[in-house]
Design a protein that fits this description.
Two copies of one chain form a homodimer. Chain A is built from eight helices and 13 strands. The first copy, chain A, starts with a strand and ends in a 7-residue tail after the last strand. Chain A has two domains: 108 residues, Tetrapyrrole methylase, N-terminal domain (Cobalt-precorrin-4 Transmethylase, domain 1, 3-Layer(aba) Sandwich); 123 residues, Tetrapyrrole methylase, C-terminal domain (Methyltransferase, Cobalt-precorrin-4 Transmethylase, Domain 2). Helices cover 30% and strands 24% of the residues of chain A. Chain A has a five-stranded parallel sheet, with helices on both faces. Chain A has a five-stranded mixed sheet with strand order 7-8-11-9-10, sandwiched between helices. In chain A, strands 6-13-12 form a three-stranded mixed sheet. The first copy, chain A, is globular, with a radius of gyration of 19 Å. Chains A, B: It holds the Pfam family TP_methylase. Chains A, B: Keywords: Cobalamin biosynthesis, Methyltransferase, S-adenosyl-L-methionine, Transferase. Chains A, B: Pathway: Cofactor biosynthesis; adenosylcobalamin biosynthesis.
Chain lengths: 241, 241
């Protein structure tokens, strides 16, 4: 059995009960080292196989092989395993290689949702998730989505907004959105949500300081109705109050 | 204290540990009757205030008043409270009316994430949430977003896809997307996810049977790379396999 578990943003409190139960039932836990570290208190003395960044295929392959040998393997991902996580890769490999492994997916609280609750209620209306990493996606595809999202007035959540080697991506995305996002549009940033050294702040589209954003950050850009009041970022659902 | 709790799709297993703890700590639970019913086993003998559909403002107002009187009030929403839920309305009312109430938001697993895990891994690449209810949003705004999402090749999750009085909305949305979504594009539907009578099925954009979809359903339309294999809907993240 191979269980792919979304552990939520980082705190044990934000894990689902199913995720906790699945972790406790596992023989072996496999994951990126930051995530295996986060679940360490729940995992106890179980075997942990941790790998570094950009080792996704090897990591999933190892997990599949162990599961095929009869182990109860848990693959841990931050947030939800089905959103920029390992769920898809596991299913692709199992299916392509015709592996005899039962895969179970355990959904989790994804970063946008967790960060929104820390900022107020910015996702109360239609929104998009866009990853600004072009490791696996051509930059032109990302550009097109950023522009379309801004033009159609979606709230936009940027995953992987800025990292080493991709310092300029977020600024480029903002430049692409500028024709449709007025300078006063609220923007919320959460760094390391629900983890040690969590930080969050509100700013505006025009005053955005890109240098404060890193790869552990999530950036939420409001729509035309989003406002900031009492230190909270709120996108109205549309009720007449 | 007023805690706005996303209870996830419906099963207790999919609630976060924080949500369970917050529910147990509450004096009074307020919510739409379907949702208060879902959490009944956790709530025990506590006072429950349940209201019908379209009573959102009254429901939130009641919760705010009880909290201001010193009660520990939990407002329950399905999925995540910050996604088409009550978090925004509560914050708007508290702030507008300058209420002396501390509001705490507890994020939950939203429908798209939960349904994706039931269908495979359809949300592994950039995606949008669009609600097809025009009760609170002009239909032209919805149309614009549907077209933009299709044109930029987002995976699209439709919330409130079809309900009494809005039987044609989903078909209209599909017609708007048709220029960019080939007939063979995979579509996944989950009805009553994680609840009694849960149903799910995979189909294609061209073969979609709208009549099977109701207001408890979530519809996920794939992007250009999404495929169906071994009964699973998978959107590749882009790894070279």
């Amino acid at each position: 059995m191979l269980t792919v578990i979304g552990i939520g943003p980082g705190s044990e409190a934000m894990m689902t009960q199913e995720a906790v139960a699945a972790l406790k039932a596992a023989d072996i836990v496999v994951g990126y080292k930051t995530y295996t570290h986060l679940v360490k208190p729940l995992v106890g003395d179980k075997e942990i196989i941790k790998t570094g960044m950009c080792k996704e295929i090897e990591r999933c392959q190892t997990a599949i092989e162990l599961a095929e040998q009869g182990k109860n393997v848990a693959v841990v991902c931050s947030g939800d395993a089905g959103i920029y996580g390992m769920a898809g890769l596991i299913l692709e490999l199992v299916s392509q290689q015709k592996r005899n492994v039962e895969v179970r997916l355990v959904a989790g609280v994804t970063a946008s949702t967790a960060c929104a609750a820390l900022l107020g209620a910015p996702l109360m209306h239609d929104f998009c998730h866009i990853s600004l990493s072009d490791l696996l996606t051509p930059w032109e595809v990302i550009e097109k989505r950023v522009q379309a999202a801004a033009e159609a007035d979606f709230v936009v959540c940027f995953y992987n907004p800025r990292s080493r080697g991709r310092e300029a991506h977020l600024a480029r995305a903002f430049a692409l959105m500028a024709p449709w996002k007025p300078a006063e549009t609220p923007v919320g940033v959460v760094k390391a949500a629900e983890r040690k050294h969590e930080e969050k702040w509100l700013t505006t589209f025009g005053a955005m300081d890109f240098s404060r954003v890193d790869m552990r950050s999530l950036v939420i850009v409001g729509n035309q109705s989003t406002y900031i009041r009492d230190g909270l970022m709120i996108t109205p659902r549309g009720y007449k109050l």
